[in-house]
Inverse folding.
């Protein structure tokens, strides 16, 4: 509480994902005054043929 | 803006997914008057043992 | 199955929303071969102070 | 209607997932009076480097 | 962990929602062996003109 | 791309929400190297009777 979900196309490293989840957690603690242990972040990555912008899959952009 | 998410059981081809993401994007442009470059669509596919209808996993239906 | 979710900032009419949900349903039926009665669409609208692009709330853009 | 989504870190067996989806379906039928065939449940599992609690990935907790 | 989301059309009482959230929490504890204090459930209700089945809004079904 | 969703119980001010959305956007830009104009954040707030922890609604905790 709160819970944060990041929807992204695949391709980031574990290091990038760790950094993002840490910084988002810090942002929630700072702005909402939440105990960090109550903050969960999950990244939902899509294969490049399963996410599109402008109607064009990322596998073709 | 807006962003669209499709939750489905696995098993569709890249061609089917491309077609769906294109047609959903067109539907948003037509009805909401959005620039297509502002429309993202992501498909979240579940393995057949991770989605159920009527309490029965798709791996057993 | 599948289920579709549209995340948008508030401000569209019931007529626009009906049109979008109808066209998305048709897109699923056409591309995935689903019975339309198995397709659900839900629109999750945010107040303008609860959605941001580029870090700026829609209430200030 | 309704549709239920469970966000979890990976690592449960098919048997655990079947049991959870069955019990959640029963809970919806009992409390909301829904026909079970109208209830869908999908589990969205994250790799351990893609979910964090307290800013720390489950791959490191 | 895990977190559960229920997407439904509006119209249930606080009593029905309390019962559902309690029973879903119990289902997670039973099947996944989680501490109940680690289970969150959120219900996302849509106005009847913002959810459709078969392409028809619940305001017209 | 990516898109971020924050699920929370109601009760934060517009100022708190603006701050959170700004800081999350900055975190995505820093860690994923994204153009900020491609980052959207939406907060989905639940009434206190529609979110529970440990099976108990926030209206009763």
């Amino acid at each position: 509480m709160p819970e944060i979900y990041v929807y992204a196309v695949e391709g980031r490293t574990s290091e990038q994902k760790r950094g993002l989840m840490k910084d988002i957690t810090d942002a929630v603690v700072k702005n909402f005054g939440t105990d960090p242990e109550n903050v969960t972040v999950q990244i939902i990555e899509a294969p490049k043929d399963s996410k599109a912008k402008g109607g064009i899959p990322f596998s073709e952009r």
